[in-house]
Amino acid sequence: MKTLFLPLIALLFTSCVSEYFTVNEGTSAVLYGKIMSELDSVEVVRQTTLRVYSGGVAALRNYNTTQCRWELLAKLTKGTETVYRVRTLPIERALIPSIDIVYSTSGCRVEEEGRVLVSNDTVRAVPGVEEKIQVTNDGDFLTVVIGCTRVFHQPVAKPSTEWLVVESPSGSEVVVSRMATEETRPR
Amino acid sequence: MMPIKAEKAMRKGFPILLLFLFGVLLQSCITRTERDLYTITDRDTTFREVVQNAPGDRDNGVIFPSSRTIEVQRNTITHDSTVEREYPNFIRLGVFEGAGLIGTGAGKNGIGTGLFGVYGLLDPDFGLDVSDTKKERDVLFTGGLYRFGIGEWRLRWFRDAANWTIGTSLIEVLAPEANTDKMLISTMPVYVRKRYYLREQIPYVAFTPTVGIGWAPSQYINVGATFDVGSIGGLNMHAYAGFAAGMNGLIAGDDVTTSAFPYFGLGVSMADFLNLVRETETEWKYHEHSAWNIGITQAMLLYSNAEESVIKAKDSTTNIPVKGFVVRFLPSSLALPFLEHKLYVGTALINVVYLGDGKGGFGILPVRVGYWHTLLPDELSVEPFIEYNYFPSSFIHMGGRLNLAVSKSLSVSAAAGFASGSTSNSIASDITNEIGNPTSFSGFYLGIGFGLSDRIFFPEELRYNR
Q1: Between β-strands A149-155 and A163-167, what pairing exists: parallel, antiparallel or unpaired?
Q2: How close, in Å, is residue A104 to chain B by CA atoms?
Q3: Continuous segment of H or E residues that includes residue A104
Q4: Which residue in the set B76, B85, B156 is minimally distant from A15, CB to CB?
Q5: Is residue A1 included in any domain, yes or no?
Q6: Residue A51: inside a domain
Q7: Do B40 and A161 make contact, defined as CB atoms within 8 angstroms?
Q8: B283 close contact with A: CB closer than 8 A
Q9: How far apart are CA B361 and CA B305, in angstroms?
Q10: Minimum CA–CA partner of B249 in chain A
């Protein structure tokens, strides 16, 4: 009877936690994640790479650290754009509307609640090509570097949070790999 | 080798540890806590101008250095702020579900559970097996379905198909007839349900196909569907159709009995709360409430004009001030859209009012109408009410109750009231004859009491006021 009982109970309680994942498990750069869209819209490959399908939203959390530099390689495999949201929470976005970094094939822009803070149409996503994206939270300064171009370096009013949210709008698909963080203010 | 005393201590402590772990697990399945860290940066610049003029005359016309100095100080302060938010982590959480089933067997072998499976509970012939006797019996609700401590959680499968749940209950009883050998009982049966919502506003209306298995002490499968209305204030109504089949492997020992029966029924569930997925992403404090009061138990001790106390020992001459009691199990008071939603209609699974020895009655699902008025926000409220208990006793109960919300799960109250009616009525005199003296009673009372797991809501918490 125990052999029947235990898997059933395990099934019961694993159903509560299936949207959570970790990347870089076993290293010092472990990141915690949560799938905020349909479970199948985000795939975690070998705990190092995220494949965010059309309509997918993956939230990454650098636990207990808000002052850090996020670094990742992004490859647009389908569609035209990817949105990276910072200084926000994955749920209750109404509490803290995010600052959105929109990286598309027609250029990139940084938006705050629909207002364009900066726009750069020379830094473009090239489908199938990996590009390094750096997002730095240092006090109220937010710095965004795509490739070798610093596209944004300004103070923003929103508080820093532990989260970076990767979102593939409908019709787009992105592969995010080599995710790493580095504290900007050593404790 | 472990000393015998230590081994005994461990054996005693093990159930407590298990209970503690179960409590922690249950808590995490009820509430999900999201803890987030923010860093807020404040920049501040201070300008300080100082002019120190030397006393005496100044030689005008000569270039003279000003004594003014300006000191600029820039400060950057970053401070962290941790915010905790609590969300419901379940789709359904309930205390009690009962249903009266028909079609499970012949009327003479039936249990007599009554409508919703609850009206027959106080019947002395409830579950009476007359198969080996000459006693005649013919009941409509031959079977019953009872669940206690129900929980359901979101099940994310089939490409995240909507409204699937996996759930269980502490105990489930499926009884097709009075013969207990045919009864199917399980602790923690596992159920998978899919809800098709016909109405996604409170109260929800849903059609719910269900499949479940019980594993101990009976082993069975239960396949069916329910038509559900609710929850509103923890109240739900269900219509059932299904088929259950299994065996009593662990109860019967070597003499295993099997049981298979179709069923149809009507049921009610109380203190039973249903969430849509979107509500699991709404903080507890922003949740919508439809009732002024929901609870597990309310109890009150009464001083009344009855001659004898219910707790007075026979032949005792001591005059006890406590004459009677009022107990309400699973009460709920729903706000009505009149008089600024202060008018309410309420009920309880079981209501017991005893003013004194032999002077009182029972009510199953009584109808209560009242007016809820808040005296002190978040603390004190008063409710004049009138309540009609129609079964198995028949009496009117009216009064006023002052409620103090001590916490979100505890309340204390004081009341003054009047009750008048008959312990028995013509419908169920056989029941009340067994319970007590079939007498008429009438009297006033004063009472003080408490509510356990009793939540009192205030105007700003009602969904109508948001």
Answers
A1: unpaired
A2: 28
A3: strand A99-104
A4: B156
A5: no
A6: yes
A7: no
A8: yes
A9: 16
A10: A1
Residue A4: inside a domain: no
Nearest to A28 by CA among A150, A182, A167, A168: A182
Q: What is the pLDDT of residues A146-170, one digit of tens each?
A: 999 999 999 998 999 999 999 999 9
Q: How many CB atoms lie within 10 A of CB B465?
A: 12
Report the b/e string of B345-366 with b at 16+ CB within 10 A.
ebbbbbbbbbbbbbbbbbbbbb
Show the CA angle centred on residue B282, arms to residues B281 and B287, nearest 5°.
Answer: 145
Instruction: Give the model confidence (pLDDT) of B31-80 as tens digits.
Output: 988 888 888 888 888 888 888 777 777 666 666 667 788 898 888 888 88
B164 touches chain A (CB under 8 A): no
**CATH code, domain carrying A82:** 2.60.120.560
* Cα gap B265→B144, rounded to integer Å: 8
Q: What is the ipTM of this complex?
A: 0.77
Q: Tokens in use for B278?
A: 């979107």
- Give the one of A12, A15, A139 whose C-beta lies nearest to B76's C-beta: A139
Out of B25, B41, B166, name the one closest to residue A11 (CB).
B166
Q: Which two tokens stand for residue B360?
A: 């009182």
Q: Which two tokens stand for residue B309?
A: 């106390």
Contact A38 B216 (CB under 8 A): no
Residue A9 lies in a domain: no
| Inter-chain CB proximity B37 and A64 less than 8 Å | yes
pLDDT at B42: 83
Question: Nearest CB to B85: which of A39, A92, A140?
Answer: A92
Domains, chain B, ranges and CATH?
Answer: 92-280 (no CATH), 288-313+320-465 (2.40.160)
Which of B31-35, B332-336, B412-416 has the lowest average pLDDT? B31-35
